[in-house]
Specification:
By secondary structure, the chain is an all-alpha fold. The chain has 13 helices and two strands; from the N terminus they run H-E-E-H-H-H-H-H-H-H-H-H-H-H-H. It starts with a helix and ends with a helix.
């Protein structure tokens, strides 16, 4: 009898251990998600937050038929791909090129991490002052040495400027992860390849990059997600831009929520973005399992 009772209590132990975390996740994720679904299916403003009127899938249809939504989605996708690729390439180059120096002076890594420690909104404000067409430092020196200065935040140059600022701030993240992966490659394999006559670039092509490939893919994935949902520095620098030219999907949702006071449309757009993100992540995980 006692043995059966102990077995029963033992079988309940895992559920008791995960109960606090499960309750926390329900409160933090599931409950807000249910509220969002109700708002997405309702006509609701700030005045009717406590009494939304259900109207079906009208908000979803409004979002899907809105050209501004797809324009913002396209800009976010293009921005994320360009910024992520640039960060990976630059971070990989710095991780390999600076590896001997960082091995001798590890404290330099802390210095290289400084841009990443600044708040994105603060970075955006700083570059907005630096790149300002009339009083900015960089346009002044362009004008001084070349006789002409481009308008860095104009519609023609805004995309390149925003990508460059994103790369300058977050390349240290890629550098940190890729440098750790580069240092983790067994030294014996490199020495054996060198003894067999493999030059530096052949070792890089056939040893270093294959070993680092999983880390490169994960780093790209993290930076793509972070760049895709960018809001702070883009909003501070250019906002939605001329004719919505620099409207990210986060800015689109923000403007629908706060400026348009159309909470149902904003929440519907965020849920559509959530579903799209889930489909992309699930597809990438399935592809990774097949390759494995």
């Amino acid at each position: 009898m006692a043995l059966a009772k102990s077995k029963t209590s033992y079988s309940k132990t895992p559920y008791l251990l995960i109960a606090p975390m499960t309750g926390f996740l329900i409160f933090l994720v599931a409950l807000p998600l249910c509220i969002d679904i109700v708002y997405a299916l309702s006509k609701v403003t700030f005045e009717t937050l406590r009494s939304p009127s259900l109207q079906g899938f009208g908000n979803f249809l409004t979002v899907l038929q809105d050209g501004a939504f797809w324009k913002a989605m396209g800009f976010s996708l293009k921005f994320a791909v360009a910024a992520s690729i640039a960060q990976i390439l630059l971070g990989l180059f710095l991780a390999i090129f600076l590896s001997p120096l960082l091995a001798r002076r590890p404290w330099l890594m802390a210095v290289l991490m400084l841009p990443m420690m600044l708040a994105p909104a603060l970075v955006g404000l700083m570059y907005r002052l630096v790149l300002q067409e009339f009083v900015g430092v960089i346009p002044y020196y362009f004008l001084l040495f070349t006789g002409d200065s481009p308008a860095f935040l104009s519609p023609d140059n805004a995309f390149a400027t925003l990508v460059t600022i994103e790369v300058l701030q977050w390349t240290p993240f890629a550098l940190l992860i890729l440098y750790s992966a580069y240092q983790a490659i067994p030294l014996e394999i490199r020495e054996a390849a060198a003894i067999d006559g493999a030059g530096y670039f052949r070792r890089l092509r056939w040893i270093d990059l294959p070993y680092m490939a999983p880390t490169i893919a994960i780093t790209f994935f993290f930076r793509f997600i972070d760049s895709f949902r960018v809001f702070d520095n883009v909003y501070v620098l250019t906002g939605s831009g001329s004719g919505g030219s620099t409207t990210t999907i986060s800015i689109y949702i923000y403007e629908a929520f706060f400026r348009g006071s159309n909470i149902g449309v904003a929440v519907a757009a965020s849920l559509i973005l959530l579903v799209m993100s889930y489909v992309v992540v699930a597809g990438l995980m399935k592809l990774a399992r097949r390759r494995a």
